[in-house]
Amino acid sequence: MPASGPQTPALHVVIRADAAPAIGTGHVMRCLTLADRLRALGAVVRFICRAHGGHLSDLIAARGFAVDLLPAPDATFAAPGHAGWLGATQAQDAADTLALLSGQRPDWLIVDHYGIDETWQRLLRPAVGHILVIDDLADRVHDCDVLLDQNLAPAGAARYDGLVPAHCARLCGPRYALLRAEFAAARAALAARDGSVRRLFVFLGGADQHNDTGSVLAALAGMDNIETDVVIGGANPHHAALARQCAALPGVRLHRQVDNVAALMAQADLAIGAGGGAMWERCSVGLPTIALALAENQRPGCTALADIGGTLYLGESGPDNGARLAAALQVARTSPGLLRHMSATGLALVDGQGADRVARRLVAQGLADSLTLRRATMADCDDIHAWRNAEAIRRVSGDTRPVALEAHREWFAKVLTDTERVLLLGEIDGRAAGVLRYDRSGAQATVSVYLTPAYLGKGIGPALLAQGSAWVARHWPGVDTIEAVIRPDNLASSAAFASAGYRHEFDIYRQRIQA
After folding, report:
1. What is the mean pLDDT of residues 161-177?
2. What is the pLDDT of residue 5?
């Protein structure tokens, strides 16, 4: 990214998320990770949480964020499914949240709550700039501008077809996993794994309401001595009993609400853990895992990761945990090749940069809101030639060779008069930000796109593509499909197209032969 370029204003961000024994701590914890990254980019972040038991407001405040509590849940409130987790009706929760906003209009409202859907979001919509929803259930309709689902699912972003507005950008997959910076640091210093098991890591969630940690420790009691780190959250209601269990097992250490989880994972050779966000943490440091699903929403991610060989998944936690874990540990300790494969799969899937990608996407929204399109003219010819020949652009282009200026001018003049082609220039505050070219053939158009060097890495690619699609819809009404050809190593471009609603459908194989 260039050292100079357009500056983005500081953002005002409000996060609505809850923690409670029934909800767990994961929603608040991943929002804290995103909040840390947003603050590092200059944003001002504030949390709004309902005063459930175990609401974590002290932890949020200790991390340096303002936090306001909604009234404690009405003990008589009841609702089916996840709606009951809100502790109030969506209308009441929305009214309480609006009252805390006190007329202030945040640039972004981030919502991470299974009990909230479009009903709540539409009530807040007039009072905020944009809405980001963090979800992984894909079971309800949202009114949002960006949808974040960090989990692995065979259907990918298509899970949300019909559940989010057409303009909504979908950030789906472990590429966007909200991991703390410590995981990227641990990954950078990671030693090669040989598949042997000398050290075990155990973590079954911050709340661990049903004491799955205890059942794992019971299973370990019958194993040969193995050095083991057991991590529990500060709100774990079973910590006293777990401390006694750990003390009775040689080589087993108990860690409560520690801040070096990434280092402990990196030092371990095998983990026993749950699905959810911790699964992507383990993948980021290549830690092979025996996984249990502790909640319904963890099953799809665990299954998807197991299907590609990324984990040894035992199904849902239950009374037979001990027998299943003992058998799985025996397999893992005698299968170094299996553990190396799981490690490599996890490392390839999660690079630990997801929080940064999401935060930059939100910061870029101010730029995207200012983005406009216009047709290119001959006056743009030489500038577009310079951008097209920039090394950063050519490196990811289909044809990486520089183009001579005279040849470019000849081609440019033809394009401007070709009714089946159009060149569009994206501008932000009058400054060129990106170039789109559409080639029409019947009902299909092919798009070629790049950002100008000043806007590389600013996160405006999806917005540029969305505006281009809208232009095609307005001016070429017979076109019903737009396709793009992307180099397989151009992950940033692939992510931008996916976020803009494009689907990966085909791979192209090419052989160059002598004439």
Report:
1. 92
2. 52
